[in-house]
Amino acid sequence: MATYRETISIDTKPGVQAIDLTERVASTVAKSRVQDGVVCIFTPSSTSAIVTNEFEPGLMTEDIPNALERIFPEGIEYGHQRRWQDGNGHSHVRATFLGPSLTIPVIDGRAALGTWQQIAFLELDNKPRHRDVIVQVVGETATPRAK
Amino acid sequence: MATYRETISIDTKPGVQAIDLTERVASTVAKSRVQDGVVCIFTPSSTSAIVTNEFEPGLMTEDIPNALERIFPEGIEYGHQRRWQDGNGHSHVRATFLGPSLTIPVIDGRAALGTWQQIAFLELDNKPRHRDVIVQVVGETATPRAK
Amino acid sequence: MATYRETISIDTKPGVQAIDLTERVASTVAKSRVQDGVVCIFTPSSTSAIVTNEFEPGLMTEDIPNALERIFPEGIEYGHQRRWQDGNGHSHVRATFLGPSLTIPVIDGRAALGTWQQIAFLELDNKPRHRDVIVQVVGETATPRAK
Fold first, then answer.
1. Which domains does chain C have, with CATH numbers?
2. Counting one residue from B and one from C, how many pairs have CB atoms under 8 Å apart?
3. ipTM
């Protein structure tokens, strides 16, 4: 068994910005040489989230942002805002409900995503941010055939 | 340490359909011989979800579908729909918020679910689908006592 | 590779009560001696949840409870309530959407949380409850340098 990790560094734009991490996660899983196990994608932040769905503009730039604004509006009063005055109370609530962590099985050396299933980082803060997303692979490496 | 995997194949009905996977997950964990570790249940799809709660009809056939329709209505405009015309924009948004992945500790050879906590696959698409849910167990197998 | 587990026992108050588990999770990870891997925090219950965000009162005692009441109101009709008459249909729906499980990478012997990211148990039931939260660590322990 082995663990392998890479960090994906990204610079984001405020509002709801979706960034496709699928290829970078695939590359990390390939380099890990893990054949069977799990990969955990994690954003160490309280105003962003990791989700997975079809990475197409209708969904990522319109439907998900609209749903977030509908159920967690930016313009209502937030206790977080009264205390900290940083204008991102809605960002914290949205991140709490979407979550920072996604765990995917690794099978035959690949993350077992469906055809229409991409991994998206969602920036939810109201300021541009630097983010370091962690990709942690845990599992069994291939047994060497020779020896 | 070891990994073990089974795939649960199901044929679903459209709308919000809940299918109880608890026994099949328990069977997979038992066959894995893993004593301590984690089990990851994952649907490789962008219009379904894995959740856990009490599998009783009031919740699964009424309250969860009602909540989904209340916060992610089928009848509003979706950017996904404008581009793809497949009528399931709401399904993608619902799947994004509920999530495709559930990780549960394995203790003494069993998934550590509570008494009123069952594992449910939720079909969220607007068409009947064939689904292959992945159950991946990672952990330590029992140490053989003899030898 | 190794697994290590502790159970955090808590007695809760009804309504939406947030309890900060960060230090107890950190202590469990430290005792596990796992250097690289993952930690899974899991509540074996259908009326509570594990989330992560900034543990400050504005968010935890006002914004998250307000969001839950806005999107999953206590006062509407629930099928669960009609069948079981225990007054907590909203609790089950809220727990289903927030989820009982959080997986975090372990790096250099510590859970890889961000600075403003604490781990919170959320009691969602309408009665005081005793809860046993599971903290399961899976990964590689440090290789001893000497010997």
1. 2-141 (2.60.120.460)
2. 106
3. 0.95
